[in-house]
């Protein structure tokens, strides 16, 4: 990723210049959220998929910026007191702590719209076929919508609640705390943006259906592996100093892979998913070298 990162940072910096109508404090808060030191996995995946399919980085850059903006919005909103109530993100105070809650809500709202503006303006300036752009807008909007990112977040919050009597005609579902349900949450909450990243890169590279299928399968496995590793990192992090192998999420009563299958079971699952992800992109040969290395990184990451 080392050579992709400066390209991504430069594009994000340019995308975070808003017109005179943007109140300076709002602009500052948006820049604070987006330009914070994130791993930039999703925009990198857009570019890597474009490369694997023989496309150009510049054609896919609007989508790369757009997906990072959607991701940044989701983090800002996830950190709000009404949701996960976190004080730290990317090593800094969260947006609602550094600014205030209304500002954090509006940062997320603005980023959702700006994401699509960025995607479209790159297509306009690079004279990209409108059909490609329409398909990309559709892919990103669906991934960020009710059946994917937002739906996954909704079910994740619901799974944290203690069992309660039937509400609004909906019975209290006993399947809420199973592995299948956990997987369904993560396929939407984390996996949807991973899949969209690869799909967007493929769209702007004009990829054939077989390539798109391979990338979609890779994304599905890698997204889940990422989440399993995320749970493992949390499991062994926060409270290690207290001698308890239980992290923040587990302490909040969240569903986690180590919680459901033990730390060794979770590690084995992550390894199997990463191996499967690597196999899906083997069809691209050398042009998928970054995607292969990325899969290894997901398994080895420490934060
Ligand atoms: C508020 C609609 C809405 C959705 C929030 C993304 C999300 C859904 C919640 C974040 C909570 C979380 C820890 C999810 C697990 C995996 C994940 C998405 C981690 C953050 O992604 P990274 O590690 O973050 O790529 P950076 O900061 O490196 O970009």
From TrEMBL:
GO terms for cellular component: cytoplasm. CDD domains: Trans_IPPS_HT (cd00685). InterPro entries: Isoprenoid_synthase_dom_sf, Polyprenyl_synt, Polyprenyl_synt_CS, Prenyl_diphosphate_synthase. The keyword Metal-binding applies. Its cofactor is Mg(2+). Keywords: Isoprene biosynthesis, Magnesium, Metal-binding, Transferase. Belongs to the FPP/GGPP synthase family. This is Farnesyl diphosphate synthase.
